[in-house]
C-alpha cells in the first residue's frame, strides 16, 4: 500500500464519511435530541448529500476537493455544525496546495489546520463538550504516530481510536459551547453529537485508506 494519499483516495474518504453519516443519522439525531434540538444527523446528512452531488464533477486536486466540500457545507447546513465543519475543510485545502498526493505528514498538517480553524471560529476549548474533544486528540495522536514512524494506515488508525475515545469522554462533561450549554449541568450524561460525527470522520479516513488496493 502506498504512503501517498491521492486526491482520489481523499474523495473516497469524503464519500465514505457521507455514507457513515447516513448510516448513523438517527443515532446522531438522538444524541442531539438529548442535549440540543435533534437535528445534527439531518444537518450533516443534508450537507454531505449536497457535497456528493458536487463531487460528480471530479476535483482536480485535494485543495479543490476540500474547497468544494467546505463551501457546500457552509451553504447547505443551517446549524452550528455547517460553518464549523465547513471551516474545517476550507482550512484543510490550502494546507495541501501544490501537492499532487499527500503523505502522512502533509495530511496531518492539513487536519491540524482544519482543527485550528474550528477552534478559531467556535472558540471551544478542550473539555467544552464539542467536536473539538474528538478532533483535538485525533490530530495529537496523528502527530505522535507520524513521529513514531508509522505508515499512513497505522497513523490514521491511531487518530481514529483517539477520536472515538475523545467522543466517549464527552459523556460526563458539562457543555460550555453551543446549544447544549443552555442546559448547564443537565448536559452531563450524554455524548456530544458533534464529537460523535467527528469520530466518524476519522474512522472513515482510517477505513478508506485501509481499503485501498
Ligand atoms: P445546532 O447546535 O445549531 O443545532 P448541530 O446540531 O448540527 O447544530 O451541531 C451541534 C454540534 O456542534 C455540537 O454537538 C458540537 O459538537 C458542535 N458545536 C457547537 N458549538 C460549537 C463551538 N462553538 N465549537 C465547536 N463545536 C461546536
Ligand atoms: Mg442541533
Labels describing this entry:
213 residues; mainly alpha; 9 helices; 68% helix; binds adenosine-5'-diphosphate; binds magnesium ion
Which SSEs are present, and which pair or pack?
Elements: H1 7-23, H2 25-35, H3 40-54, H4 62-76, H5 81-95, H6 104-122, H7 132-147, H8 152-169, H9 193-210
What does the model show?
- The chain is an all-alpha fold and 213 residues long.
- Helices cover 68% and strands 0% of the residues.
- The protein is built from nine helices and no strands.
- It has helices at residues 7-23, 25-35, 40-54, 62-76, 81-95, 104-122, 132-147, 152-169, 193-210.
- The N and C termini lie close together (7 Å).
- The model has no long low-confidence stretch (mean pLDDT 96).
- The structure holds adenosine-5'-diphosphate and magnesium ion.
- The site of adenosine-5'-diphosphate has 24 residues, from helix 3, helix 5, helix 6 and helix 9.
- Residues 32, 36-37, 39-40, 43, 79-81, 84, 118, 122-124, 130-132, 177-179, 192-195 line the site of adenosine-5'-diphosphate (ADP).
Amino acid at each position: 500500500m502506498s504512503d501517498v494519499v491521492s486526491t482520489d483516495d481523499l474523495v473516497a474518504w469524503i464519500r465514505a464519511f457521507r455514507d457513515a453519516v447516513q448510516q448513523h443519522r438517527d443515532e446522531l439525531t438522538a444524541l442531539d435530541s438529548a442535549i440540543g434540538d435533534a437535528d445534527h444527523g439531518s444537518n450533516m446528512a443534508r450537507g454531505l448529500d449536497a457535497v456528493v452531488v458536487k463531487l460528480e464533477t471530479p476535483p482536480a486536486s485535494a485543495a479543490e476537493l476540500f474547497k468544494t466540500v467546505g463551501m457546500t457545507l457552509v451553504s447547505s447546513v443551517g446549524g452550528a455544525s455547517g460553518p464549523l465543519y465547513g471551516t474545517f475543510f476550507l482550512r484543510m485545502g490550502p494546507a495541501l496546495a501544490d501537492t499532487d498526493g499527500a503523505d502522512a505528514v502533509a495530511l496531518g498538517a492539513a487536519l491540524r489546520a482544519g482543527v485550528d480553524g474550528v477552534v478559531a471560529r467556535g472558540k471551544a476549548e478542550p473539555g467544552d463538550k464539542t467536536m473539538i474533544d474528538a478532533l483535538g486528540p485525533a490530530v495529537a495522536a496523528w502527530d505522535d504516530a507520524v513521529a513514531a514512524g508509522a505508515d499512513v494506515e497505522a497513523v490514521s488508525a491511531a487518530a481514529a481510536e483517539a477520536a472515538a475515545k475523545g467522543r466517549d469522554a464527552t459523556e460526563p462533561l458539562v457543555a460550555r459551547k453551543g446549544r447544549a450549554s443552555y442546559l448547564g449541568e443537565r448536559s452531563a450524561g450524554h455524548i456530544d453529537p458533534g464529537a460523535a460525527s467527528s469520530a466518524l470522520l476519522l474512522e472513515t479516513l482510517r477505513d478508506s485508506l485501509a481499503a485501498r488496493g
